[in-house]
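Need a sequence for this fold. Nothing fancy.
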């Protein structure tokens, strides 16, 4: 992730958008303003990831509806919802929809900046985890079917002799496949290979002995 921190401000009130942009830019953020939820979603494809400052009460499409659409698109950007005083029920619904936080208008500038700092910490962690998982899947995808079976057996904690039994292979063949797995996963040892396989979502091999066969 780049050092640039982008905040999408979605609010139908032009004065609110402008004041938020001035505050955030003075704090070092890059800001993109959107006059409605519809306008934001229309430009979402290809947009740089960032945090979302989202007003709840907007004509045409409410903030809650924008949240629902973001979930449908599997977008995981942190959302800070802006509500009016007395909108506790709506704020709770926003949190159930996955909002990072909600702030009542008029919010205090220092509270908004503190909340954004926390939200970006979460976003950057999410981006790192997503990148790690994608890299792990790419490595695991490079394994052959047999190599993947051996890796799944290693995830199950099986030694080479039991892997050979489970897969109807010789111990020597298992050793060869295991060496290939380590090379293709770029793993220094078994613990590294296990971490990569788990990050990729690979499941442990189910032993046929467990079923009594």
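Here you go.
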């Amino acid at each position: 992730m780049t050092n640039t921190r982008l905040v999408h401000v979605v609010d139908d009130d032009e004065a609110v958008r402008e004041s938020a942009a001035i505050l955030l830019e003075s704090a070092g953020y890059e800001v993109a303003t959107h006059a409605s939820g519809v306008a934001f979603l229309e430009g979402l494809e290809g947009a740089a990831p960032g945090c979302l400052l989202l007003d709840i009460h907007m004509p045409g499409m409410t903030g809650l509806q924008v949240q629902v659409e973001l979930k449908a698109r599997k977008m995981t950007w942190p959302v800070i919802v802006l509500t009016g005083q007395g909108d506790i029920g709506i704020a709770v619904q926003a949190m159930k929809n996955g909002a990072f936080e909600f702030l009542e208008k008029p919010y205090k500038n220092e509270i908004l900046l503190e909340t954004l700092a926390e939200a970006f910490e979460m976003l950057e962690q999410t981006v790192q985890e997503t990148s790690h998982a994608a890299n792990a899947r790419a490595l695991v995808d490079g394994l052959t079917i047999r190599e993947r079976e051996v890796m799944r057996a290693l995830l199950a904690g099986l030694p080479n002799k039991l892997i050979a039994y489970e897969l109807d292979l010789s111990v020597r063949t298992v050793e060869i496949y295991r060496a290939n797995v380590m090379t293709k996963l770029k793993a220094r040892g078994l613990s590294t290979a296990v971490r990569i396989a788990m990050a990729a979502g690979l499941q442990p091999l189910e032993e046929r002995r467990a079923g009594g066969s």
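For context: The first strand starts at residue 6 and ends at 10.
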